[in-house]
Amino acid sequence: MRVCSDLRAGDSNRHVKVKQKSAVLNMLKKLDKIRFRGHKRDEFLDLAESPNASDTECGDEIPVKIPRTSTRDNEELRDPAGPGTIIMASGVQDFNRTESDRLNEIKGHLEIALLEKHFLQEELRKLREETNAEMLRQELEKERQRRLELEQKVNEVLKARTEEVPAAQQPAKPQTQANGTDKRSHTVCSRLQKWFCDKFGEYVEDFRFQPEENTVETEEPLSVRRLTENMRRLKRGAKPVTNFVKNLSALSDWYSIYTSAIAFIIYMNAVWHGWAIPMFLFLAILRLSLNYLIARGWRIQWSIVPEISEPMEPPKEDLTVSEKFQLVLDVAQKAQNLFGKMADILEKIKNLFMWVQPEITQKLYITLWAAFIASCFLPYRIIGLAMGLYAGIKFFLIDFIFKRCPRLRAKYDTPYIIWTSLPTDPQLKDRSNATVSRRLQTAASRSYVGSSAPTGISKDEDTSRFHTTKRGNFHEVFNLSENERPLAVCENGWRCCLINRDRKMPTDYIRNGVLYVTENYLCFESSKSGSSKRNKVIKLTDITDIQKYKVLSVLPGSGMGIAVSTPSTQKPLVFGAMVHRDEAFETIFNQYVKITSASSSSES
């Protein structure tokens, strides 16, 4: 009986285990349906490889009870007397092991599902932040409201039209003739309205006001090839204007006597008979006709001055660094000179109208008043005739005489005198600085003369005596007479370095210092402390040759040095590294020419 009861208890336990197994399988199927849909079941980590769950995500673990066998069942399983007890015990143990594995797998899947949920929430939050779904919804609702309002307005207009049509048709029923005339007038009006909309609707839409669009132009980066191409384009574009100006100057200079004489006679005759404006219009039409024929392939040259075709150099594709640098310097120099000329013209016009030179602006003021009074009392035909005759005589005769006789032009050519005497802004600045310095010098000289200057000494001697350098008086530093002092251009001197190629010692080969020019000498003061033997004094009459010099031929540009040859040196002395080389060279050369011409005239 005991054996039977034990067998029944074992069957009941086995039935419970089978039920638990079916429940676990159903739970696994449901989890497979809930799981993330992108991966397969085998791709997830096992429990041993799965990451640890956080406190918020996987803190609440599911209590899992592993079924255990009782001591009684173990005793029964260990009973060797029972038939098949060993096989049953092993089967129960395998079943218990598989159930624990399945529960652990369920735990891992739950952890993975929680992690996937957390990751999906983060992605959804990022997407909401990036797309601004709320803003898009608001804009979409606004557009919907606008569409609904437009639909309501359209429906109202259609209803009003439908109401107007039967209202117009109802009183027309008793009178058939009036009905016919109304229909015809309505059809005519509709056709006219349709025709007007088709013809002029586009133009009406063009006059609709719209907000201006501020477009920012992108600036191109600096490129050597683009720079040279733009300079060539500018030269080609300005060529017709320059040719026109050359032809006008050739007419005024009587380059071709027959052409200038014919042009003068035709112009004066046209002005006398009042045909000046038709003549200029006819010339413009003639020029356009000739340009049309030239564009068609005709070879026509209508120019007083023969055109000189300059050879166009093909652009180089591969340029060295020095060539690119030299090209940029050349273009920058041309742009600097062009902008300088344009700035001079604009500044002169500005100063003319701003009363910077009152005596010049006063002439313009009187001329404008005279022209205004003449225009009020004289007929326009007489004014035009006078102006045309004066322009023709001035252009063809007076300018020709003034260009051939510069002294007459400097005395009697009023427009030329006014234009040349108008100052630019840099010239006004230099004048103001010069006046301030003169006032300071006069005040200092007066104070010194009144206090300690001996009698019988002139102002020039006094000012030259007290012109000093960093080391003392100028004549004491260079052992010269008191009358020798630097010129006004180089009172502070030019910073440079003296290169004496006759010397072999490095200390004597190059010396840094300041270069001065006096009336008779070229003086170099060394910057190193020591005796005056390191200074250099060259008499201008002893110079045999002076020229601009380039110390390093590898560097681009024309150099920053001046070479001076004397009989006492085998190789020329070079004053290099001069920032204001051109100014210094012009000053030295002009003073050298002045001294040599004066000495030659005194000897003769």
The percent range for helix content is: 55-70%
Number of separate strands: 7
Question: Could you spell the SSE succession in H and E letters?
Answer: HHHHHHHHHHHHHHHHEHEEEEEEH
- What count of helical segments does DSSP give? 18
What spatial form do the alpha-carbon principal axes imply?
Answer: flat
Structure description:
Residues 472-550 form the GRAM domain. It comes from Melopsittacus undulatus. The chain is of the alpha+beta class and 604 residues long. The chain is 63% helix and 6% strand. The protein has 18 helices and 7 strands. Strands 4-3-2-1-7-6-5 form a 7-stranded antiparallel sheet. Strand 6 (561-565) and strand 7 form a beta hairpin. Helix 7 (257-273) packs antiparallel against helix 11 and helix 11 (380-404) crosses helix 12. The protein is flat, with a radius of gyration of 53 Å.
Question: Brief description of this entry?
Answer:
This protein has 18 helices and seven strands. The protein is an alpha+beta fold and 604 residues long.
